[in-house]
């Protein structure tokens, strides 16, 4: 009798939607259902970073203004009527004011954890601190933060940290960060800041949802492969793969869904774990888990990994 080769599949928890994403999605759904909100419905960017969600809302007529390279302030100029929803990543006062000036109806889906960073920075500015903010370029969360004050120093990596002015060492320095980073990659930046400004005050603002998902990756048993289900634009999803590869030393791949699995990754392995970013629909991750559970390397009948999901199932 032919031996059946099946992998061990570990479904990590927690994974998937966080409170900020759930609230943002609920807000868009409410606007779709409520006819008194003026049409068309716009989202200034992607409501959360997941292309499948954006496409599903698109099927309901929601227009996501997601043009790469354009700021939120540039995007709002393209809206002249209807309802605008600001995304979970935060929005600057300048954009809110512009929406008011244009007489638009708007709703703000900014996550409360992102608000917390805005508040902390404003308070420290009032107290006379110089602000250093660690984040990712071309991401909407830093865009809104940097609009708080033109004097905020933005740092993405060690190179940026080394270029910061030495004169700051005689001033009060407050360091904080984007909510969806990992301590593993900002550690090297913090080490440089410690040498430049030994008395700096650090407020770690990696949100709880990001932290506990990363901890689940770090604390898992050793496996041959980890698949992270999430969008390539999603910072927290990218970080899960980063933490898997760098901190846990497990070969980790970021996939948008079951259709992105490369069967070569599964050849000869005994175990695989699955996690997903905070903006990844559970139904998409479940499809990945179910595929892996039934997959057998020596049975071609189990190899079909095209998604069976209808785009409207996503929401
Ligand atoms: S990942 Fe964190 S900051 Fe982003 S929406 Fe979720 S809870 Fe909020």
Q: Report the helical percentage.
A: 25-40%
Please outline the major beta sheet. Answer: 4 strands, parallel
Estimate what percentage of residues fall within beta strands. 15-25%
Tally of alpha and pi helices: 12
CA radius of gyration: 22 Å
Sheet with the most strands: spatial strand order: 1-12-10-11
- Tell me the number of strands: 12
Mean pLDDT over all positions: 96
Q: Which topology of the largest domain does CATH recognise?
A: Cobalt-precorrin-4 Transmethylase, domain 1
**Content-based structural category:** alpha/beta
Description of the molecule:
With 315 residues, this protein is of the alpha/beta class. The protein has 3 domains: 115 residues, 4-hydroxy-3-methylbut-2-enyl diphosphate reductase, catalytic domain (Cobalt-precorrin-4 Transmethylase, domain 1), CATH 3.40.1010.20; 93 residues, Rossmann fold (3-Layer(aba) Sandwich), CATH 3.40.50; 93 residues, Cobalt-precorrin-4 Transmethylase, domain 1, CATH 3.40.1010.20. The protein contains 12 helices and 12 strands. Helix 9 runs parallel beside helix 10. The model has no long low-confidence stretch (mean pLDDT 96). Iron/sulfur cluster (SF4) binds next to helix 1, helix 5 and helix 9.
Which helices and strands, and how do they pair?
Elements: E1 8-11, H1 19-33, E2 41-44, H2 51-59, E3 63-64, H3 72-76, E4 83-86, H4 93-101, E5 105-108, H5 112-126, E6 130-134, H6 140-146, E7 153-155, H7 158-163, E8 173-177, H8 183-196, E9 201-203, H9 208-218, E10 225-229, H10 235-247, E11 252-255, H11 263-266, E12 271-276, H12 282-294
Helix pairs in contact: 9-10
The chain binds iron/sulfur cluster.
Iron/sulfur cluster binds near residues 111, 113, 180 and 278.
């Amino acid at each position: 009798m032919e031996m059946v080769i099946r992998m061990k599949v570990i479904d990590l928890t927690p994974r998937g939607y966080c409170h900020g994403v759930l609230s943002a999605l609920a807000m868009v759904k409410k606007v779709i259902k409520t006819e008194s909100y003026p049409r068309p419905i716009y989202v200034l960017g992607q409501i959360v970073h997941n292309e499948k969600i954006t496409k599903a809302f698109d099927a309901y007529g929601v227009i996501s203004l997601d043009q790469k390279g354009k700021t939120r302030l540039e995007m709002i100029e393209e809206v002249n009527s209807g309802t605008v929803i600001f995304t979970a990543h935060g929005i600057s006062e300048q954009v809110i004011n512009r929406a008011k000036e244009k007489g638009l109806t708007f709703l703000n889906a900014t996550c409360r954890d992102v608000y917390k960073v805005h508040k902390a920075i404003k308070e420290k500015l009032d107290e006379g601190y110089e602000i250093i903010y660690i984040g990712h370029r071309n991401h909407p969360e830093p865009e809104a933060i940097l609009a708080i004050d033109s004097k905020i120093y933005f740092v993405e990596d060690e190179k940026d940290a080394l270029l910061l002015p030495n004169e700051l060492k005689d001033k009060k320095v407050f360091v904080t960060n984007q909510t969806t980073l990992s301590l593993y990659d900002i550690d090297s930046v913090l080490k440089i800041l410690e040498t430049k400004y030994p008395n700096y005050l650090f407020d770690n603002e990696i949100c709880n949802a990001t932290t506990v998902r990363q901890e689940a990756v770090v604390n898992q048993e050793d496996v041959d492969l980890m698949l992270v289900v999430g969008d390539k634009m999603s910072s927290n999803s990218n970080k899960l793969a980063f933490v898997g590869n760098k901190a846990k030393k497990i070969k980790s791949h970021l996939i948008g869904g079951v259709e992105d699995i490369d069967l070569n990754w599964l050849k000869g392995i005994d175990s695989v774990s699955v996690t997903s970013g905070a903006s990844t629909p559970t139904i998409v991750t479940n499809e990945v888990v179910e595929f892996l559970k039934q997959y057998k390397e020596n049975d071609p009948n189990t190899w079909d990994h095209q998604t069976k999901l209808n785009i409207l199932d996503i929401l």
